[in-house]
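Subject: complex prediction, re-run

Hi both,

The earlier run crashed halfway through, so I resubmitted it with identical inputs.
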Amino acid sequence: MIAVLIGLLTGALAIALIGESIFDTYKVMWDGAFGNFYFLTATLARATPIILIGLGLALAFRAGVFNMGAEGQMVLGAVCAALAALYVPGSGIVKLLSAFLAGFIAGGLWSLLAGWMEVKYKVQLLISTLLLNYVAVLFAGYLVAEPFQDKSGSAALAQTPMIDQAVWLPKLFAGMSVHMGFVIAVIGAIILYVVLQFTSSGYEVRMLGKNPFFAEYGGINKQKVLLFSMFFSGGIAGLAGTVEVLGSQYRYVEGALTVPGYAWTGLMAALLANSNPLGTAVAAILLAALQTGAMGMERNTEVPLEIASVIQGVLILFVTAKFTLSWWKVKKKAGDVNGAV
Amino acid sequence: MELFDYSLFASAIRMVSPILLAALGGALCARVGIFNVGLEGLILAGAFSAIVGNYYSGSVIVAVLTGAFGGVLVSLLFGLATIKFKANPIVAGIAINFLVLGLTTFGLRAIFQVKGAFYDKDMNGLPKWDLPLIENIPVIGKLLSGHSPLVYTAFIAAILLYIFLFKTVVGFRILAVGKNEAAARSLGLKVTVLQYGAIVASGVLCGLAGAQLSLGQVTMFTEGMTAGRGFIALVAMMLGQSHPIGMIGSSLLFGLMDAMSIRLQGFSMPTQFTAMLPYVITIIAMFFLKDRGLESQASGQQSSR
Amino acid sequence: MIQAISGLTSVDQGDIRLGDTHLVGKSVAFRRNEGLAHIPEDRFLWGAAKDATIEETGVMGYYNKKAFNKYSFILKNSFREVVKGWIDRFEIKVKSVDDKSGNLSGGNLQKLIVARELGFETNFLIAAEPTRGVDIGAMEYIHEAILEKRNRGDGILLVSSELSEILLLSDRIAVMFEGKIVDVLERKDATEERLSVLMAGGKEDESSEKNTTTA
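This time it finished cleanly. Structure:
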């Protein structure tokens, strides 16, 4: 919590530098995020993909794997979902379900690829996932630039044609931007929490993360759990892209998912909440609020919206530093350095 | 227009330099056991500081120095968080990236009162040096001559770093720390000093990289102008196995791909595939270079699973 | 050798059998199912997860059993009773079952691990240095528990470098030197002196460990 305060303080400092009134500016930020119903729903809408990515990452982190490929998995999920929605024959429901399935599996398989490379060939996950991000984003970019481009309009845009209205995820409130995806995200958070805490698979994942030696000793099949975790982690990230396509954009647009930095914000949410699924959802909403609030600030004051990035960055920095500061104190007391953090 | 001609290679070399500089910085950190993901932020900080320095002093030399200084400041922040507070370097690095992105855009507004980009026609960029003898050599001359001093610095730095790491005592100490921090500490090596040193050095190098970006071709600062180059530098570092000479090669590869993809647009071959190539190559390379990489100690916490 | 038997390392040559079942090439889970339990040498590295709660460390190996698992949901309440039983029986000093395992003292953690592994009621138990770094009181509990298991007719492979412990607990003693078994003695034929000589290889070199097996 101190971290949040420091973050806000830094923001305050920056605002003062510009010469604006700190109090007014923060008030505008609050309004921008929660001020009226429109903005509130905008915040929730923005939070939707962030929550899902955060959940996927939370799962991976719990298993002890650093899945840095959320962005790529999300993008691939989005593209495949869009393509499924466009080209799978059948009624609206059939298209919808296949889009979800396609998005989940696409993200999951992409993530599984990195996982498989780690298990079979010892290619470090951290690096392979980072690299695969680029490949995925570029590939999706290719798909919408050439074969699947929307050629209907006069301008040649890097996006797919719009998907059929029957496949759209309904908005929760008329005229507001938040859609069914948000509900899905929240339900997902609850499910993930329950699975991790109360089921045997969840136990295996958590023990693998806490001490892989212990896990192996106890009979847990490390490789299987790792691969499953990667698959689901990527799948959930793929869902993030899917719900954006089906509920918000209604097509896959190049850059629509990467520019807002959903993946990195999701990462921060998971880290802030220490990979607790419920906490991650809350953190995601807070970070989204920070961002929409900042947009409100930009509209109404001279303060640029990047202040959100500043606050976010400082926040994360202090959170990781603080977490480990208390570790450090405990370690100094115990004097025992058995095992690494 | 042909695919391969001199200007292609010349621009490749020019585009390579920020990546190479940053990769060298990252490699130094990696060698000391810290996986510095914050290269992107460091470069951006350098780019911004360089422009600020240039604006207020009017001198390119001061600008370059300010650029390096900007990099150092941010790197100190990173170092503090990672070494003193034992924050997870990957998280800290990402945080730094966000932080610098916000701060520089903010600074753009605060100091220059502009949005998007700052350009001042009265500011001078880095001069182009025409190397007297070399420029007359038939083929290579056009390639090697006429670049900004920072471009040459990049390559020289790589060679210097190679000598430093592998031929000097301090260099060996750094390598030792990276291979096994606990053992190094027990031997009495000043691990913390070395780590801070590496981080500050990477700050300098990335700062210079940023200076090259904002002063090298067109003298201006654009929001987020690093555009992922910091991450590309990371990849170049991995592909080059954190070895200075190897990184010259990998950075050139990236630079070439970069330049080529612009050229290829004229051939209606999807640019995305050439852009993808370096990453794919790196992944394939990782199959063969598994444990010789230094990432093993720092970032490979999960690999042992 | 312990790693080979428990399944943590793979074996190139030879055979391992438990009763009639071949264990070579099979997973740790398989061996545990067949009736193998294992008290590891390094309790903090292999035997527990420091950040996990005591209950979570205790449930390893039990979470899949029908008694504690319904539709893959772990029945925490039922299992807690079991852990509390262990805490009582072995007088394990804990603040609460939800406390972190890393907060337990070495001896108390070892008692927890012993209780857990014994609780499986397997035919075969590997006990590697079970009382290393453990206080006297805990040591007594553990010795008592091991003898009790032996008295029920189960097989125990005790690996120890403590001669007094070996002589106290074993029915049959195998001495290893430089990775090979050099001799197998019946308890009645074994004395500290004889064992020491065998441990030293009958020559003037260092020895590795001594083993005991009970029938």
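Chain A has one domain: 49-293.

- K.
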